[in-house]
Design brief:
Elements: H1 5-22, H2 26-31, E1 44-49, E2 56-61, E3 68-69, E4 77-82, E5 88-93, E6 100-105, E7 112-113, E8 121-126, E9 132-138, E10 144-150, E11 156-158, E12 166-171, E13 177-182, E14 189-194, E15 200-202, E16 210-215, E17 221-228, E18 233-240, E19 247-248, E20 256-261, E21 267-272, E22 279-284, E23 291-292, E24 300-306
């Protein structure tokens, strides 16, 4: 009786080869976002771009695919942020002559001003319940303060006075604390405010020239850009909420700034000049696995990452 071993070996070899043909190549694994996350499951990133000539708002999948233009205006549109429920985008528009906060649906429809004011408004962020937008507003005396306006009615309330010259607010997911930059001493410093009671303090041990701080989804960490005023470059940092364990995530010699967290807190998107012009990149929250998402000769930046409502 003849041995069946050769037949078995041939069969195993055929199965192995077929399996290998089905496995993704190394290039396929690394061509998407870090970790091979599905772009359909990871929300969307809105950003501002000058690829159409002036600054407009665009949206894309978390892997950089399906880039879609949302605004089409002769005025500049900038600083987009996605609402917590993923249904609305707040942004700044110059269409009325001075920068004002506007809202639109996630597909770019129903664009309308948030407030009826005429003083310049910028740097919007959302309260975690999605009921209000916080932003920096110019005061009658020329100073600036942080305000909040209801997303439905546009009713204003003032959160800070102008003494610290605050800018770039960002509210924690539990709604208890707000990060902001203070320009009181003429250089940006990282501050925190307890929204109940109004206590404001500089985050202990943090460096000067920290910019655009943002809470991680769990409230335990803060990402921010740190400017080097001698070279006018910047690096993305992450630290604990108490200012400890500051870690540099991006290389020196380039400008990497305006970080934003993925909805699950595992990754960070940011704008960087490492390719000669500003593009949007994504990396793990420890700085590894960097991937380029946009590729255009014009400016792409100011990303906001959100889970989109179905």
């Amino acid at each position: 009786m003849k041995s069946k071993a050769p037949l078995i070996l041939v069969t195993l070899l055929a199965v192995t080869l077929a399996t290998l043909r089905l496995l993704p190549t190394a290039a396929a694994v690394t061509s998407g976002p870090p970790g091979g996350h599905s772009s359909r499951d990871e929300g969307k990133i809105v950003f501002q771009s000058r690829r159409s000539g002036n600054s407009q708002i665009w949206i894309m999948n978390a892997d950089g695919s399906e880039v879609t233009r949302l605004t089409n205006n002769s005025a500049d549109e900038m600083m987009p942020v996605i609402s917590p429920d993923g249904g609305t985008i707040a942004f700044v528009s110059d269409r009325d002559g001075a920068g004002r906060i506007y809202l639109m649906a996630i597909d770019g429809t129903n664009q309308r001003p948030l407030t009826g004011g005429s003083e310049p408004e910028e740097e919007p962020a959302w309260m975690p319940d999605g009921e209000e937008v916080v932003f920096r507003k110019t005061l009658d005396d020329g100073g600036v303060a942080i305000f909040a306006a209801s997303a439905g009615q546009g009713e204003l309330r003032q959160i800070t006075d102008g003494s610290l010259r605050p800018k770039e607010p960002h509210v924690s997911l539990d709604g208890s604390r707000m990060l902001f930059n203070s320009l009181e001493r003429g250089i940006p410093e990282l501050w925190i405010m307890e929204l109940e009671g109004g206590r404001q303090s500089r985050i202990p041990g943090t460096p000067e020239w920290g910019m655009a701080p943002v809470w991680s989804p769990d409230g335990g960490r803060i990402a921010f850009g740190l400017l080097d005023p001698t070279t006018f470059t910047a690096q993305v940092h992450v630290m604990n909420a108490d200012g400890r364990d500051d870690a540099v995530l991006t290389p020196p010699g380039e400008s990497s700034e305006y970080p934003c967290w993925s909805p699950d807190g595992s990754r960070i998107a940011f704008q960087t000049s490492r390719d000669g012009n500003f593009e949007i990149y994504v990396m793990y929250a420890d700085g590894t696995g960097g991937q380029r998402l946009t590729s255009d000769p014009a400016f792409d930046g100011r990303p906001s990452w959100g889970t989109i409502s179905r």
